[in-house]
Amino acid sequence: VVGSGVLSLAWAITQLGWVAGPVTLIIFSLITLFTSTLLADAYRHPDPVTGQRNYTYMDAVRAHLGGLKVRLCGLAQYANLVGVTVGYTITASMCMASVRRKKCLHAEDNCHVSTTIYMIIFGSIQLILCQVPNFHKLSWISILAAVMSITYSFIGLGLSVAKVAAGAQLNEGAEATTTWPTVSEAHRLWKVFQAIGNIAFAYAYSTVLIEIQDTLKSSPAENKTMKRASFVGISTTTIFYLLCGCVGYAAFGEDAPGDLLSGFHQPLWLLNVANVSVTIHLIGAYQVFAQPIFSLVESSCRQRWPEVKFVTTDHQITIPFLGGTGFHVNCFRLVWRSAYVIVTTVLAMLLPFFNVFLALIGAASFWPLTVYFPIEMYIARAKLPKFSFSWMGLQALSLACLLVSLVAAAGSVEGLIQSLKVYHPFKN
């Protein structure tokens, strides 16, 4: 569950301060842990132990709530997937550009490096990978993602510890993500709201918990095993997040960069390893998040136009120099998936703002997917009477999280507006 969102936590802690920053992280972790336990009981319906399985998050919402809420869940879930793929394009291109930028800094060469060309490179890779059938089901993808995320996270943490131990806060010409100067209390408050969105993004993994639970054996009961796993996973993740955020803040002070890795200039080889690890991780992660969108559109089109060969017919392509090995090509799949990759790449070019975009995704997805639907499913399954003590407590929690998400979204939008005032697409 540790992803690229960990890179923005030092900046988030900086905006919130030594007390409010860690407290906010812990509060988000406790809320996520609580709703994860509710979600674990939603895997089966109507009984959490003997009921019928729900294989996906949306299946669970459909079984417990049905009706309009299923559509709202689908809208929130797929909008989040689109946002994440755009965010991953931004992050990966930023890391690729960082490798080039650090090299020219050492060579004392012209260090103006645009991320646009690296977004095109990343998009070109995705154009190829998106045509690989069942790419997201390849078992080694999860292993590779875990190794890469651990690699760059520990490198960032280790470099921060080393800098704190050295007792220095040197800028060293680093290309830290630009932070806006504090010009007013209102401006500072917007940054605080945006920081909350960054923390929310770091905990936005509830939608995968049902799929993870589906891999567990039925004895002992999946919900009990999943609750223990959630406790261990979220507790460990929170401790690591606190270390990365607080040590990063201690290393850079008020100059903490939006992307932790961009704040360092030495050692070059280790930073290159970290940035390459982020890139490799996100190349695979993009496909993992994009495949459900591909599947939804393709299955819907096949059902709506079953007689259209452009949509339904697969063509066998044989490659002679590979021993006659062949693969299936579907014209609609080729056009649709390529168009999706191109659109997300262009969106990333238009909005290449790492912190702001991740905060916006976190703000938009945390309340509906992490809080609202798990609580509503629990209320429906437990048949809690309206205005009972438990019902009012859960609704109060949901309302509070909604308000937090709204202010985080407001801060993210304001940051986006400010960034667009000085950024010129395809020129900067």
UniProtKB/TrEMBL annotation:
Carrier protein involved in proton-driven auxin influx. Mediates the formation of auxin gradient from developing leaves (site of auxin biosynthesis) to tips by contributing to the loading of auxin in vascular tissues and facilitating acropetal (base to tip) auxin transport within inner tissues of the root apex, and basipetal (tip to base) auxin transport within outer tissues of the root apex. May be involved in lateral roots and nodules formation. The chain crosses the membrane at residues 16-40, 78-99, 111-129, 141-162, 231-252, 268-289, 340-369, 389-411. Keywords: Amino-acid transport, Auxin signaling pathway, Membrane, Symport, Transmembrane, Transmembrane helix, Transport. This is Amino acid transporter transmembrane domain-containing protein. One of its GO terms (cellular component) is endomembrane system. One of its GO terms (molecular function) is symporter activity. The keyword Transmembrane helix applies. Its main location: membrane. It is found in: Endomembrane system. It holds the Pfam family Aa_trans.
